[in-house]
Write a structure and sequence with these properties.
Elements (H helix, E strand, L loop, with lengths): L13 H7 L3 H16 L4 H11 L9 H18 L1 H9 L2 H11 L9 H8 L5 H18 L10 H17 L7 H11 L4 H30 L10 H27 L4 H19 L2
Helix pairs in contact: 2-3, 2-4, 2-12, 4-11, 4-12, 6-9, 6-11, 8-10, 8-13, 9-10, 10-11
Length: about 280
């Protein structure tokens, strides 16, 4: 229950509206964070939770519609970067479409655990350990990943690979565990090249993000508590969308360049440092 912070009249809540509002600067900042960390293997959810605590932005988890808009910005970045591949899947590579569906299967059981998963986002003391898990996954994928000869790849193995990559993606429901990092590392352990792993990871992001948005909309409609939504104007929505889109493009381009030079160890060291620093910070907080 939301307390009546504005006075005895529950209808008169201007102070509550102001507390739940997001400023244009916050919208730009959140858009940048979303755009960069959605694709770089460092966890967008983990960074948003971290910055929420560091800068006292207590209303991030209430910005449901704003979060959807930012995700749409990153989706547009994927459509632009992978436009040719998406066209090929829709018109000629039907098996790839089926593989993407198979990779989504491990996420279905998690729908029934949404309440428990969301509670973990409030337990920020565990965030650093999840960053360390991302560092470990990235290291394992970088250290033990390999590329099997193309003449040994069989369709049956590829379908099993898709399901296995989906299992890696399911780990990333926790804040601090990178979806892209998990799926790319999983694909590398299965013998996929960096280019194949990155392409599949971000193609898989399309139905994953869309399903997440639809699920949030469904929950919002079921609650029917629209009065508690933050007071966000079209300017803030536009800023979040635009900056998540622009920095999403930058992150996708940068990640592809790094993959071609096999420099994923940069992200291992980054997540390792971030994880240790986050643990030490919240232990002394």
């Amino acid at each position: 229950m939301v307390p009546n912070v504005a006075g005895s009249n529950p209808v008169d809540r201007p102070f509550l509206k102001r507390m739940l509002a997001v400023t244009t600067i916050e919208a730009i900042f959140l858009g940048i964070i979303q755009g960069l960390t959605e694709f770089l293997p460092v966890s967008s959810s983990g960074h948003l939770v971290l910055f929420q605590s560091l800068f006292g932005m207590k209303n991030i988890k209430d910005l449901i519609i704003f979060d959807m808009v930012c995700h749409l910005g990153t989706l547009l970045a994927i459509f632009i970067i992978f436009s040719e591949k998406i066209k090929a899947i829709l018109y000629s590579e039907k098996k790839m479409l089926f593989k993407l569906f198979i990779a989504l299967i491990p996420l279905f059981p998690l729908v029934f655990m949404l309440k428990q998963i969301k509670e973990i986002f409030d337990q920020i003391e565990y965030l650093g350990y999840f960053f360390l898990l991302t560092a470990l996954l990235l290291y394992i994928g970088n250290r033990f990943g390999y590329e099997k000869p193309s003449n040994l790849v069989q369709p049956e193995q590829s379908f099993r690979d898709a399901f296995t990559i989906g299992l890696f993606q399911a780990i990333a429901v926790f804040p601090g565990v990178s979806r892209s990092g998990s799926t790319i590392s999983g694909a590398r352990l299965l013998g996929w090249s960096y280019e194949q792993a990155i392409s599949f990871s971000f193609l898989l992001a399309i139905p994953t993000i869309l399903a997440s948005i639809l699920l949030e909309i469904g929950q919002l409609l079921l609650k029917k508590n629209f009065s508690s939504l933050p007071d966000v104007s079209w300017i803030q929505y536009s800023a979040g969308f635009l900056f998540s889109f622009i920095f999403g493009l930058i992150a996708l381009f940068y990640l592809q360049k790094l993959a071609s030079k096999q420099r994923f160890m940069y992200f291992v060291w980054y997540c390792l440092f971030l994880g240790i620093t986050t643990i030490l910070y919240f232990e002394n907080f």
